[in-house]
Amino acid sequence: MIIVGVVLALIDMLLISRFAPLPVYQIILLASIGLIAFGILEFKGKKKDKAQANQQSGGNTLDLFHDLKKYDIKLSNAKIKRNFYKNIPEIKTQNVTKRNDIYSISNFIAIDVETTGLKPATDRIISVSAIRFEDWEPVEIFYTLVNPQTSIPVEATRINHITNDMVVEAPTFSQIAESLSKFIGNSNLVGHNIAFDLAFLYCSGLNLMDKGIKFYDTLQLSQYLMNSSEKTGTYIDYVRNYKLSTLCQHFNIRITNFHNSGVDSYATGLLFEKIVKYKIK
């Protein structure tokens, strides 16, 4: 299936470039979206049958990336200043209880960034993905590679598979920050270890903590819900760790190509739905 995705992505690129030559980074983006789509195991069926199909198949994911609306990212010439990590506002995440309105929670944006390292103060963002979910359905995607204006360490490339050549013609974060902020608006944000993503966005010049947005962290929520030891108690089950891939496997969300920001944000949205529905039911 993944091989088919690669072939289709390449055909897509060739057809487009035949009529309008594209910058290298845009060609890579097209290929990346193709790979994202086919990194998710395809489930046959119509979108309107998603809930029933997922239930019958034990929660298999649908191949919806080709159906998602691609957000039109407008590049800005504005230069934004980086923020000092020491000045980052407190990041408050929300818990989910039976008192929550499940309808209001079902509308959100799942976000993920890939970076050159683990330190927001000194490392840089190299890709951003944000997927809008409405009534638990993914409907629109913001996805782009980002030129960090510095070299990508080999260690980072081993994890996220993003190379220096892939981002050399990509926009800088300053160029896409305004579009990303508009895409997010006042929507609730969901992330897996969302403090990591928010810290990198903040240090890159985009402060989302002052917009009145509610933040939900699937890492924290899963820690409240499950135990990583074999003790029993109020937890629904045992998991060996709280990695996104481990939790998706636990909830039978069959996804591959983790550490791709598009795949990770999509998986996070599906995981959030599983956690919320369990806690509220």
Automatic annotation (TrEMBL):
Coiled coil: none annotated. Pfam families: RNase_T. SMART domains: EXOIII. InterPro entries: DnaQ (IPR006054), Ribonucl_H (IPR013520), RNaseH-like_sf (IPR012337), RNaseH_sf (IPR036397). GO terms for molecular function: 3'-5' exonuclease activity; DNA binding; DNA-directed DNA polymerase activity. Keywords: Exonuclease, Hydrolase, Membrane, Nuclease, Transmembrane, Transmembrane helix. One of its GO terms (biological process) is DNA replication. The keyword Cytoplasm does not apply. The keyword Hydrolase applies. Residues 107-281 form the Exonuclease domain. The chain crosses the membrane at residues 22-41. It comes from the Bacteria. This is Exonuclease. It comes from Lachnoanaerobaculum saburreum F0468.
